[in-house]
Amino acid sequence: MRSPFLLWKNFEALIIIYKTFLYFDSMQEKYSLIIVGAGPAGLTASIYASRYNIPHLLIGSLIGGLATEAYKIENFPTEKEISGLELTQKMKEKAESLGAKIIVDQVVDITRKEKDVFEVKTRSANSFLTETIILCLGTIKRKLNLPQEEKFLGKGISYCATCDGPFFKEKVVAVVGGSDSAAVTALYLSEIAEKVYIIYRREELRAQEAIKEKVIKNEKIEIIYNNNVKELRGDTQLKEIILENKYKNSFSLKIDGLFVEIGGVPPQTIIESLNLETDGQGYIKIKEDGSTSIKGIWAAGDVTTGSNGFRQIITACAEGAIAADSVHRYLINKK
Amino acid sequence: MAKLIFNDQNFEEEVLKSEIPVLVDFWAPWCQPCLMMAPILEELAEDKSLEGKIKIGALNVDENPQTASRFGIMSIPTIIIFQKGIIVDQIIGLQAKENLLARINNIIMNKEVKK
């Protein structure tokens, strides 16, 4: 039989472990605000939060977000023209100059811990406590959802023209899509590639007139309207795509690269696990003040239903500012 | 061990002829996801648990087109793990540190099992 002394020792050890656990638990960093996402909306929210003296943390996996991929931005009021990378870098520098604490990491889970406290967990197993949250989750690029799409990723298929465009010097490439991003991507690629096709399912591009005009005038760009990409072909690399129109007539196009620019979709995981109210397409429903269906959580940028669905850098910044202002009002009223 | 720099000149010796597995990050300065990836690889290179088990380094595709085209790099960031000159894993796009660590450990473990 074990002696009572040993049992007591075990008990004492357990207490020490418990106390250590409590100590570390109380050490968990707590903020007034955590901004999730570091694109233009998140960076602007941080700038406003700093100026309101709100102790906050900004967590994002890609500083600058999807905007970093824009090759040329010509409609930001202060800039004649600027790359997305440069513009978002400026926003980051501005946020940091005001004292923003930025962590490069991915938020994987958000749960309510107490009445007015949320716990934010990241992929690197860090967790933080916060009174309020602004979700600036952005969107993920929509894929074609075709067989072999995964296989040809990095073997001819790309979702980031500014990353991968330079690999297609003097080659033949195609851009799928008809939006501003698709048109700007085609213009960028025309500076590198020998020939650029735009493949769009409608009769006319829906890009802004100023961009559309440039695309139509560009001799290297050929637009194929009223067609969808139906099939991807190749051995180890993408070599050919099969297009099909609404009358089911199909034809083949020999290409070296295919750039997919068919818009974005909101990321689902966090939105679903929080059970936030969304529109039919998964965008977070927000009110004029950026508030969501959950008290203490606001949202801004491309992921929301705000700004009349006009998803631009400037509207993302505006939503970020509005959300930060709302958080400020909320925290003051709570005191 | 600090993160290594690979190029067209040292690739054969440092990567393909290496005794231990080698992780190569194909990157370019014009690519923002690549720039976000750099510090993650920096951390992995300093990770004590990987010391002596894998070499970690980067190759600038802009300055070393020969190696980039040899491995058919058409999208960056691309991470390739080589073992005895053979590609044993390839990952495209920005990755979380944990994901890379899992892929590395998978290769290191397999190697140990085979011994």
Describe it for me?
The complex is a heterodimer of chains A (335) and B (115). Chain A is α/β, with parallel strands linked by helices and 335 residues long. Chain A has helices spanning 4-27, 40-51, 84-97, 161-164, 180-190, 209-217, 269-274, 313-334; strands at 30-36, 56-60, 101-104, 107-114, 117-122, 127-135, 140-141, 157-158, 172-176, 195-199, 221-224, 227-234, 238-245, 250-254, 257-260, 264-265, 297-299. Chain A has 2 domains: 27-139 and 266-334, FAD/NAD(P)-binding domain (3-Layer(bba) Sandwich), CATH 3.50.50.60; 157-260, FAD/NAD(P)-binding domain. The longest helix of chain B has 18 residues, at 97-114. Chain B is an alpha/beta fold and 115 residues long. Chain B has one domain (4-114): Glutaredoxin (3-Layer(aba) Sandwich), CATH 3.40.30. Chain B has 4 helices and 5 strands. The relative contact order of chain B is 0.22. In chain B, 39% of the residues lie in helices and 24% in strands. In chain B, strand 4 (78-83) and strand 5 (86-92) form a beta hairpin.
Q: What are the key terms here?
A:
heterodimer; A: alpha/beta; FAD/NAD(P)-binding domain; 2 domains; seven-stranded mixed β-sheet; five-stranded parallel β-sheet; elongated; B: 115 residues; alpha/beta; Glutaredoxin; globular
Outline:
The complex is a heterodimer of chains A (335) and B (115). Chain A is of the alpha/beta class and 335 residues long. Chain A has helices at residues 4-27, 40-51, 84-97, 161-164, 180-190, 209-217, 269-274, 313-334, and strands spanning 30-36, 56-60, 101-104, 107-114, 117-122, 127-135, 140-141, 157-158, 172-176, 195-199, 221-224, 227-234, 238-245, 250-254, 257-260, 264-265, 297-299.
